[in-house]
Every structure is written in structure tokens, then in C-alpha cells.
Amino acid sequence: MDKVEETSKDIIKFTAEKLSVDHVSQLVVSPLCGAVSLFVGTTRNNFEGKKVISLEYEAYLPMAENEIRKICSDIRQKWPVKHIAVFHRLGLVPVSEASIIIAVSSAHRAASLEAVTYAIDTLKARVPIWKKELYEESSSSWKRNKECFWATNS
Prior knowledge:
Blueprint: E1 9-15, H1 21-28, E2 35-42, E3 46-47, E4 50-59, H2 61-78, E5 81-89, E6 91-94, E7 98-106, H3 109-126, E8 129-135, E9 140-143
Parallel strand pairs: 1-5
Antiparallel strand pairs: 2-7, 3-4, 4-6, 4-8, 5-7, 8-9
Helix pairs in contact: 2-3
């Protein structure tokens, strides 16, 4: 069997457009890999008894992109993965739509599953992305990321 050479890719995108799980997962498919693992974060319709109608995301893009590149580099140091894709929605995200999709391919499932978990946990802790919840009763609330390193325990 011929050895297939393929350059590893890190694909990072912030967009106001609706995210497609199929599109993002296809970006990391490789003939060298037997696993593609995904995390898809969606807008839920409730928070602490309030009816949520949508989320609104903002990001400081230069720093956010740089931090995600560092996360990809960290993943490559920890696990033998092939391709990594991180797509994050900006602006309004209605209930049930994806706000983030992370896809990772690897030869075997353990590496990609662990890498996806690390990616979302680390992204929430380090990347400057802000989320505002919009409620049915015309109120809204910017949400602090509990995992975020700059958050205080007050």
C-alpha cells in the first residue's frame, strides 16, 4: 500500500453566517484517518428559568484567532491528530443553531475525542469571545465564562 502524504491543516473561521456541521466535518476528513470527532455547541432555549430566544456573540478577532492557533498547536503537542477545524459564529445565533463547531481527525478515535474536549474547554477558558443572552421578556444579559482565566471568583 502506498504511503499517502498529506499536510496537516488548522482551519479557523469566525463568521456571521449559519454554521454547517457537514461542511466543517468534511474539511478534516483524510484518507489517513479512521476518526473524525466533533463538538457542536448550540443555543438552548432556557437559562435559570428564563426563556432564551437567541444568543449574541462578539470577539476580539486578532487575539481570538491567535489564541485558537495556540490551542491547535497545544493539541498537536499532546495528540497525534491530522486536521483541526474551529468555526465560531458571531452576531445573533437563534435557538437550536450552532454557535461553535470543532472538528478533529486522527488515525484512531481516542486522540480526536480527547483533542475535541481539550479544544472546547481551553477555548472557553482563554479565547476572548463574549456571549449575550437575549430573553423573551425583552431583557438581555452578558454572560461571564466561568472557565475564563480573567474571571474572578466574586
